[in-house]
Amino acid sequence: MSLSTPLRRLLLLLALLAPWPALAAPALLVLGDSLSAAFGIDTRSGWVSLLAERLAARGLDLRVVNASISGDTTAGGLARLPPLLAEHRPRVVVIELGGNDGLRGLPLPVVRGNLESLIRASRDAGARVLLLGMRIPPNYGPRYTEAFHTLYADLAQRYEVPLVPFFLDGVAAQPGLMQDDGIHPRAEAQPRLLDNVWPALEPLLRP
């Protein structure tokens, strides 16, 4: 059945007046372990959820994708990253991994190589990268613990990516801020974690 001219005009007008489908906001991907997965606390209290709230409050149109898994290592993150990049096409990738590698005493060249691959893959996908540095307890020996900490700075300098030198700065070993295991921050510590990240992250959020 052919449409009359007036009906065709009406349908064209309705199509022009119909709202365009909303484009998905650019993504900010957090690839981390239990420190970013809000282990032991309500996820709504975690620093990543607080980050999403801060972005919204400041009118920054970014959707936060928290791809953090408790217990994850740099190798685990590296295995998970490609499909995450393909699905979300993030503008920014925050890499918060390595702590579990250090606690397991994994060889530092392996940790370094995995972190390098995470940085490269994220940048090759067009994302800006923020690296969150970590320290491990001194009982692993001064040589290992210091080399573990400095590898983050070395990688940040080599690949020219911003770095938070110690993600748990002002939180680790502070009474009332750590859970009973001495490893995971309590809900009260999460705003401090966000404040540790924010100065290095904020410049990456601009279009």
Description of the molecule:
This protein is an alpha/beta fold and 207 residues long. The chain has a single domain, classed as Rossmann fold, CATH 3.40.50.1110. 44% of the residues lie in helices and 11% in strands. A five-stranded parallel sheet has the order 2-1-3-4-5, with helices on both faces. Strand 1, helix 2 and strand 2 form a beta-alpha-beta unit. Helix 2 packs across helix 7, helix 3 runs parallel beside helix 5 and helix 5 runs parallel beside helix 6. The protein is globular.
Set out the fold topology:
Layout: H1 5-17, E1 27-32, H2 47-57, E2 63-66, H3 74-88, E3 92-96, H4 99-103, H5 108-124, E4 128-132, H6 142-159, E5 163-164, H7 190-201
Signal peptide: 1-24
Keywords: Signal
GO molecular function, one term: phosphatidylcholine lysophospholipase activity
Question: Low-confidence spans: pLDDT under 50, at least 5 residues?
Answer: 11-16, 18-22
N- to C-terminal distance? 49 Å
CATH class: Alpha Beta
Count of helical stretches: 7
Mean pLDDT: 91
Compose a concise summary of this entry.
This protein is α/β, with parallel strands linked by helices and 207 residues long. It has helices at residues 5-17, 47-57, 74-88, 99-103, 108-124, 142-159, 190-201, and strands at 27-32, 63-66, 92-96, 128-132, 163-164.
